[in-house]
Amino acid sequence: MEEAKEEEKPIQPVVDSAPNGLVDTTSVVEPTAEGETAAAPLNNLLDITFNKESKDNEIPCVSPPVASATNGLLGTASNHLPKAGIPVSSAEPNAFTGKMSLVEPTVVGESSEKPSNILMETDITMEEPKSGSIAPQMALASEPMDLLDTDEQPIEKKTVENIPEVPFALEEVKEQSEVLTITSLESLTRFFYIRETKQAVYTGSGTSFSETTYNDLRDLCDQVQAQQLADCLEKALINNDECLPRPDEALLVLAVFLSTCTNATERILMRNCVPRLVRTDTELFIFMELAEKLQKIQMYKTPFSRTVRKAVIAWYKERSLDELLRMWAKGEQICSLHNNLLRRVHYKPERMTIEYKATLQLLSTPTKNLVTWPGFLNPLIGSKKIIEGIVKLRSTTNARVAVTIVNELSLTYDQVPERFRIDPTLAVHLIPTLSYEHIFKISPRVLRCYRRAARNAYDNYEHQLFDKTKMEAANIAPLYIYMKILRLESNSRLRNVFCDLYEASFGHNKALGKRLNISVCIDKIYIRKYLKGRNPSSNYLDALVAIAFGYFKTDPDGSKVSYWCDRTGQLKDLKWTKNMTLIEATGRCQTLEVQKSKMDFSQIFLNASEDPEDYDIFLIVVPKATRGNPNNKSAKIASLLAGYRLTRQPKSKIIIISLLASKKSMSYSVDTCEHILELCGISEQMPQIINAFLAEKFR
Q1: pTM over the 0.85 mark
Q2: Do 612 and 671 share a domain, yes or no?
Q3: Residues in domain TROVE (predicted)?
Q4: Where are the beta strands (DSSP E) in 82-199?
Q5: In degrees to the nearest 10, what's the CA dihedral of 335, 341, 343, 344?
Q6: Fewest Cβ atoms closer than 10 Å to its Cβ: which of 309, 344, 418, 488?
């Protein structure tokens, strides 16, 4: 039974307003930190193993608010403001190209209860730094003497007397700028992108979550209305590929809301949104895994709650027949997952048309039982040719027979059995059907086409991989390719190919359209170090160049790159140019040989106040941000940014990347928006997180 919650007054958060200064320290702690594309038509599908799925042509559907109700944790007593409901929205049809066209039946809905889910914290192994770089030291190409000029030239030191007065004082900023408070809904939105609710700090995605995370999400879900959360989830999950790193966190919030909502009306309204928010079977499996883990945290004996079981049955009912047939076409492994899931949610084929019953039974039937046409498939007689063709393809071991079937039925990569996906005979037919992102992700398998007998297939693959037009359209950041290289240490042949691709990728992804003020620390002591934790094979300098030079090459106009050059805390122009290559940019950093510098963050804004350009982004790439802010608080740097936003650029933001850190370098305000994002270490998700932060998807 679900008990009503007692009324509680919300506690006003306490804001720490203590002033903070910026000074240098020499002690440095060096740790780090460390995600996809959807069911498409039959002739253009992606592998089920991918984390993301394309969201093209999906139109978000927002429903009007309905009745109010409360939401709370089962078995506790608490009362909050009523939440608005969300009526059921029908799933959008997804055409199954060509040969599987069937008449669609009506979909029946259902009623109430609760669910569950999980992502558990992992320990980061700390290792001693290593020396050297993953890439060989390459000679710096010849360049003018003024470009190779080092710190020998005297630098005019800015003193307190010659620095122009700007309203950067914390008290002044508080009086003049509007303080933006972070709401519960905004905290949940932040969790979708960086897995953090209290502060804008990203320390890695991880694969599990703790009970503490569950408690935090439960408390936030208690304070939001169902309609608000559904709209927020829709914006994050639909048509948001370039910003959302992966759907796991958003699906976790959905599962937590369903499992902790004690009001039947609210719970039903959110449950009816599941078929719209969970767009593909890949996301459905993620959602169900998280829901099962939540049940364990809540110490329930059943794997799924009634609410979740009804949501899953409604999900299958709202898929079109063509979508269900495409799921079956992905392979026996996917079919077994569907079969197991339907059994565990107590699926009963009642109130369904005979076509739906036949299709769901097809999902649950092993291929060996489909060699001869079974009677239960008679309602799908219109798709008999393609069903029999896929069954024959799964049964054969001859690649030439497989090629004939693939060509005859125009099958795509994910409809071909795993053993044929790496076969050179089929590669010639499959590679042209793939998107650039898909080609990039399956590259280790395609490598087997490198055999001399299949050289034509491999050449076709490599030609598409280095196609600059497709590269720009796919918007794959150099950092993402660099992370791919780190995973290929044992495969020298493919590693060499990706090193060439990495060097060619700079300047060939979508521009941010922003003016960047980039500040980097290239002290000699750090450029030899290796990152710790999840990426121990990454050299500090390689990671710094992948990030800083990558963004500079994409948006060179109006942007500048500076480095701390000595113990005075002054910044000097790094003299990168948009015509530089990766080798030249790396060599420039090595040639300067900065011995020891003072990282003074305030100097960034003092210099920016004198520049004619108004900067949109202050990108700071350092070993760890504590060296530039020894008091370990964000108040001072936030006041500097607030002053710059008042006097120069109202939408400026700060992005700090602490390459050798595995946790936040300073304490940030929990209740107010400071427009600062800190990223610890490096990861494949970093470019998408930065895109989301700049697009104001979260604060």
Answers
A1: no
A2: yes
A3: 171-514
A4: none
A5: 160
A6: 418
